[in-house]
Predict the structure.
Amino acid sequence: MKHLRLMDEGDGDDPILSVVNLIDVFLVIIAALLLAVAQSPVNPFSAEQVTVIRNPGKDNMEIIVKDGQKLDHYRASGEIGEGQGAKAGVAYRLKDGSMVYVPESGAAGTQAVQ
């Protein structure tokens, strides 16, 4: 009978069982944290339309635009951009925060822009 009693007592004192239980608890906590991060409204990859600017204002600036399933990358060449055009008018910000556009002579009347 002594031999049977030793076999029964060995299972209750096994330290590996408590380590396995701790690992299970940590896996559940990690899974819950991953689900919380994935469902966060701050997560930029959960939205349908996202624009990310990396290294703004530097020579290696990159703009990443996600529109649904389409992903576009735009990289700066480091050169100053220039183009051709003409001054179309002047915009003024009023005290209430609204913008008023005053076109150059020869164009139509003024427009208020919010």
The chain has three domains: 1-43, 44-76, 87-114. The first strand starts at residue 49 and ends at 54. Residues 107-112 have pLDDT under 50 and may be disordered. The radius of gyration is 32 Å.
